[in-house]
Amino acid sequence: MPLLALPTSGHADTLNGADTAWMLTATALVLFMTIPGLSLFYSGLVRTKNVLSVAMQCFAITCGASVIWLLVGYSLAFSDGGGANAWIGGLDRALFLGVGVDSVKGSIPESLFALFQMTFAIITPALIVGGFAERMRFSAMLIFSLAWLLLVYIPVCHWVWGGGWLAQMGLLDFAGGTVVHITAGVAALVAAMVLGPRKGFGTHSMSPHNLTLTVAGAGMLWVGWFGFNGGSALAANGSASMAILVTHVSASAGALAWMGMEWLRHGKPSVLGIVTGMVAGLGTITPASGYVGPGAALLIGLGAGVLCYFATQTIKQVLRIDDSLDVFPVHGVGGILGTLLAGVFASDQLGVFSGRGYAAGMTMGTQVGVQLVGIAATLIFTAVVTFALLKVLDLTLGLRVTTDQETEGLDLTQHDERGYDL
User: Fold this and answer.
1) pLDDT tens across 257-278, in order?
2) Which residues are paired to 109 by β-bridges?
3) Cα 53 to Cα 259: distance, rounded to the nearest angstrom
């Protein structure tokens, strides 16, 4: 069921005050996830000399993505240009043309719908920052992020939520398993591979410099995610409240599972582990949050904590890929797992683990097949376009700072500032 087809508490295209009030709140919560949530979460995970650089990147992406969304992004993602288009939308909503004070989308103002979707377009490229943290030039980062938004995020968003070909197939992605987490995770992995590892990766300690910042940011992400998933119902109704409930259950289960894995393998549970498991639980439940119940959310969260934990170990220790802040193993793997399990637990035939049920004519087999198509298409498209974009930028502008600049840190070399001056 595509996002725009979800039921609302009011009549179609009739403004509802309760829905509007909730969506105003949800929109603020999703923006809160990036600024300040993700900024603090990432800032604490890098080394002291790079703490400002990742915060700056999140802020700059927020501003740039907002302008891109206003100019053409919203229109290309959610407009069909006067006719159904399976691949990309039209330009009839460019610069929010026709989006006035009285414009209504379902039961909320269209300006609010466009703003809510803008916050998703902001956080997705900001997540990728964790894959190349501490080594990409600021100018290259900004151009890459905005170009990637246009070339990857907006087309996939249209495919899934704008009435495109995956929506027409019946893909279940309530709040962004494919659109947000798979795209960001795969792009981060590709970026980490193209840029290569940080200087000293595997031989020098690169521990988080301030886990207190990271925990504060993680708490903001957890609370903000209620707007991310609950707001995707586009109404103040049972779907929104159930989405928030299952989001919380999955986050809790993911945190406990990751903590448990560390405790068993290393003898002590870590703060970094429990907050990372929480994020894994949140990302994994995202595509399924509008379709499953609390029992399924418990299993999804536990699976996320275990699988994403092992994925993190594999990426860095076995494959030796320096995905600096574990974007792919947490968001990419979580998005894949959650999108797949949405096709399983949406079934109404699983007892205490049942969800809302499939659309007419869908069985578990057919739904899982659609989910696999959506996963594969999103993964391949994102990987190819991201690789090509990075290579073009590397040949023209140059992606990576010099060795001396990396040693000195991006705070000074890119911004002439220090995060700490004690």
Assistant:
1) 999 999 999 999 999 999 999 9
2) 104
3) 29
**Beta-bridge mates of residue 136:** 400
To the question of pTM greater than 0.90 for the whole model, the response is yes
- DSSP assignment of 319-333 equals S----TT-HIIIIIH
Higher pLDDT: 369 or 361? It is 369
pLDDT tens digits along 216-242 = 999 999 999 999 999 999 999 999 999
Query: Could you identify the residue written with the tokens 């986050």?
Result: 251
For 400, the 3-state DSSP assignment is: strand
Quickly tell me which residue has 């190349």 as its tokens.
132
Say whether the peptide bond before residue 294 is cis (omega within 30 degrees of 0): no
**Which tokens go with 65?**
């993505």
Strand partners, 400: 136
Cα–Cα–Cα angle for 70, 221, 305, nearest 5°?
125
Top-tier CATH class for 16-414: mainly alpha
CB 418 within 8 A of CB 412: yes
**Torsion angle of C-alpha atoms 162, 163, 164, 170, degrees rounded to 10:** 120
